[in-house]
Fold RCC1-like domain-containing protein.
Amino acid sequence: MVDRFRPVSIEELPSHLILEILCSGRLSAIDLACLELTSKTFGGSHGLYPFKFSSLVDFAAFQLCASHIIYSKTSLNSQKELYDRCGANWKRVLRFLQSVEQSSEMVETSAGNMQITTGKYHTLLISNSSVYSCGSGLSGVLGQGPETQCVAFTRISFPPLARVVHVSASFNHAAFVMQSGEVFTCGDNSSSCCGHSDTSRPISRPRLVESLKGVPCKQPASLRSLVKILKYEKMSQVAAGLNFTVFLTRQGHVYTCGTNSHGQLGHGDSQDRPTPKMIEVLGNADPVVQIAAGPSYILAVTVNGAVYSFGSGANFCLGHGEQHNEFLPRAIQKFRRKGIHVVRVSAGDEHAVALDSNGFVYTWGKGYCGALGLGDEIEKTTPEIVTGLKNHLAVQVCARKRKTFVLIDSGSVYGFGSMGFGSLGFLDRGVYDKILKPRILDTLKTHHVSQISTGLYHTVAITSSGRIFGFGDNERAQLGHDTLRGCLEPTEIFVKEDSSQENIDPDI
């Protein structure tokens, strides 16, 4: 009887059980690599898999890749190309897929789950479900009540037990997604972009968007096979435009509200919407997996790799080869014709960037200051591949005012465009210089960067160890430092935990 309950070492477990544990989806590619080095049980051959796999961990990595939503939706040729670009290493393929998945959401660090987002003169941070803000926020975008400036990261108050999983605050308002799927907003609501009826004053603290509670789930047939049918839709992502907001549900539906002067809400007209309304055209297409909002336009990526754009056609940001406004979502045909499976996009002020399933980067729009990374300042009316990055495996793209950052799978960062206020982070260049081609950011080379976000003239990065570094303009303390006017070199930003601060109800 005693022997039945004796401790069992991992080496004694059946190989098929070990494989099941490894394929549970709870382990990262780095976890698998570490396990492979610790024991012959993980690194050896057990006859459970074809000889082309070098170890049990290698086979587990392949299984995880095969079931991953990005990899499984790409063509066989694309899958082979990614495998070859990863040096025929399934663990590296898995690391790429997992890094891309986290790039527009929360990233896992050794200090916990984190997400960074930057705006004009402010920065917001999620750290282990709590949200912090710093910088200037005259319109209430900081979510700190009557406070118009925070010189250091200060925790934003939410209702008890609320856990924030996604945030967007690119312009004058902020939107937060809770683990429950609920959405809170704060900031300038004069255009109804926060989804509240009160437009006479800013929303100074996060407030629940009541109109999104109990949104009926109208699932098209193509979606039923991909997700479990739920009674109500819940949000998974938000994107804040200049005076409008985009909401993405877990079922892949897109809702918008706010100003619609350029058709950026995607409903086929220019009528403003005071409360979120579902975009019917996208509701009848493949499920959307990622959204991005520029000043007056929206990009939406579907599960099958198509990119839809709509809103203002200025600066060729829509990627259709013309500058007409699009009042309904329209697929970017160049991606479709070339069989390019896009997985992530970023919407800049005057240009846009896309990342495909093989780690290649594409840019289009105005080329001011080299923001497209193509070696000149010439505008591109449709997406063009950034040849200077073809030998690298990109996992995140980030565009803003005349500059672009690209994070590659090794944790290094490449930047190009305007050096304005030092926000590209190159110490040997002046603040008015232009970087026309992708260049590695040497000042962050000693760190493994997991996520990067750039605002008007400042940039903030999160490392795999959970450290936060910022550089560029700090005139309004948007880098979380009280005494510095600017930081040409990446400077660490610290979050002061305030255990005495209690959650309070948002103002109403």
Summary: The longest helix spans residues 90-103. Residues 294 and 371 are 15 Å apart (CA to CA).
